[in-house]
Design goal:
Elements lengths: L3 E6 L3 E9 L5 E8 L1 H11 L4 E8 L2 H13 L2 E8 L6 E6 L5 E6 L15 H5 L1 E7 L6 H16 L3 E5 L10 H14 L2 E5 H8 L4 H11 L4 E5 L5 E5 L2 E5 L13 H16 L6 H18 L12 H76 L6 H22 L16
Parallel strand pairs: 1-4, 1-8, 2-6, 4-5, 8-9, 9-10, 10-11
Antiparallel strand pairs: 2-3, 6-7, 11-12, 12-13
Helix pairs in contact: 1-8, 6-7, 8-9, 9-10, 10-11
Length: about 425
């Protein structure tokens, strides 16, 4: 039995996010603990998993703040080192109106870049069920060597490997180098979490399914998660995939940590259920919980210290399902109203058709009366002229018989008609 559920390696830094203005009109910034790997560990810790972090910060005010934050959250810090020469990495986060972000890094160098392979606590890597990493620990040679060694050790001792490229273009000397390191990560991982823009950048494919197919042609990764922002998420497993709609929040503040929260929930599910024979229903269950947790974090400032609890996510899902039931009930009522309206329209059509038939009956009765007058006039002329009655009268009798038959037919049809809509070309007769 291994001690740790998840060990992660990578960057641990301070995210400076704008938080109003001073009395002098200057922008105020809040120093939030951040870094994708520790965001993942924080959420996993909230879900009951035992976690630890491998990385380096500066021996300065921010480094001390970061270490204290991890310890308060219950994340293991035995392999968190403090560099006396290089300061803690900083990032300025610009948040757009839709909650998306842009990053400016103070990291040349930053302490997270200074981790060396010989500083790894190998026992920690041997004693974990899952190892998680990204590419920010692969931008420079020293920390890159440490990352690759950590992956190899964890993999050798049976750990699942989780990889999130988490591409930050300004931190790379070239995107060709970035692509090379991403490809190395793909070759080692069992679980890949990749964003919509990253898969397009990596494969050149706008269609995510085609992009995943191209990745799998070279790297047979069992589970690939594609996060699509406001479009939701997908889980590609074996030959197919499952898609889950997002939970859009009106009170979104920023998207910082949303992808990390999502990733952590997926890893938690895999740790609980494994990667063998996962049904579409289970994948949808996994994505639904992960999307809900990611939605919650968008309503909070920062990420690492404010990750939702399991109960918070479950309560959120309960509320969402209640709203969905109300919406479904409303649609049911609306369908009934529409059905009633259609029935009423049909009845109206039947009434119009009956009215048309009754009009035609009146016309037939009128014609009979006219023929009767003609018969009377004819007989009168014959009588007046003293002439014998000839066959002409027989034709009048025949015409009357036709009209009488028409009347009986139309009376029988009243109440059993199908609606028709008269046109200008077909007026009521």
């Amino acid at each position: 039995m291994k001690t740790y559920d998840v060990v992660a390696l990578g960057e641990l830094l301070i995210d400076f996010t704008q938080n109003g203005q001073s009395e002098q009109g200057n922008g105020l910034f809040e120093a939030n603990p951040g870094g994708a790997p520790c965001n993942v560990l924080s959420m996993l810790n909230n879900l009951g998993k035992k976690t630890a972090f491998i990385g380096k910060v500066g021996k300065d005010q921010f480094g001390e703040q970061l270490k204290e934050s991890l310890e308060e959250l219950g994340i293991g810090t035995d392999n968190l080192l403090m560099d006396e020469q290089v300061h803690t990495t900083l990032a300025l986060v610009h948040t757009f109106a839709d909650g998306d972000r842009d990053f400016s890094f103070y990291r040349n160098p930053g302490a997270d870049m200074m981790l060396r392979a010989d500083e790894l606590q190998e026992e920690l890597l041997k004693d974990t069920r899952l190892f998680h990493f990204g590419t920010l620990s692969m931008t420079h040679e020293g920390v890159r060597a440490a990352t690759k060694k950590a992956v190899e050790i964890a993999k050798e001792y049976g750990a699942l490997i989780s990889f999130d490229p988490n591409l930050r273009e300004p931190l790379w000397d070239s995107l060709d180098n970035a692509k090379e390191q991403v490809r190395w990560g793909l070759s080692k991982c069992d679980i890949l979490k990749i964003s919509d823009n990253e898969i397009q950048w990596l494969t050149g494919e706008e269609d995510f399914t085609e992009g995943v197919r191209r990745i799998r042609e070279e790297f047979p990764i069992p589970l690939i998660l594609v996060s699509m922002g406001s479009e939701g998420s997908r889980a590609y497993y074996k030959e197919g995939y499952v898609e889950c709609a997002p939970f859009i929040q009106k009170k979104t503040i920023e998207t910082t940590g949303a992808g990390d929260t999502f990733c952590a929930c997926v890893l938690n599910y895999v740790l609980d259920h494994g990667l063998q024979d996962v049904s579409d229903a289970k994948l949808l269950e996994m994505l639904t919980f992960a999307n809900a947790a990611a939605s919650i974090i968008t309503t909070k400032k920062g990420a690492l210290r404010v990750m939702p609890t399991r109960q918070e996510v479950l309560n959120f899902l309960t509320t969402q399902r209640s709203k969905q039931k109300k919406e479904d009930k409303f649609m049911e009522i609306l369908d009934k109203v529409n059905a009633i309206a259609k029935t009423a329209a049909s009845k109206t059509g039947e009434m119009l058709e009956d009215t048309k038939l009754r009009t035609q009956i009146l016309n037939d009765e009128k014609s009979i009366r006219e023929l009767e007058l003609k018969i009377g006039a004819h007989y009168y002329k014959k009588f007046a002229a003293g002439e014998a009655i000839d066959d002409e009268i027989s034709e009048l009798f025949t015409a009357i018989s036709v009209h009488l038959a028409n009347i009986e037919e139309k009376k029988a049809s009243i109440g059993n008609t199908k609606p028709t809509i008269p046109t200008k070309e077909e007026p009521f007769e």
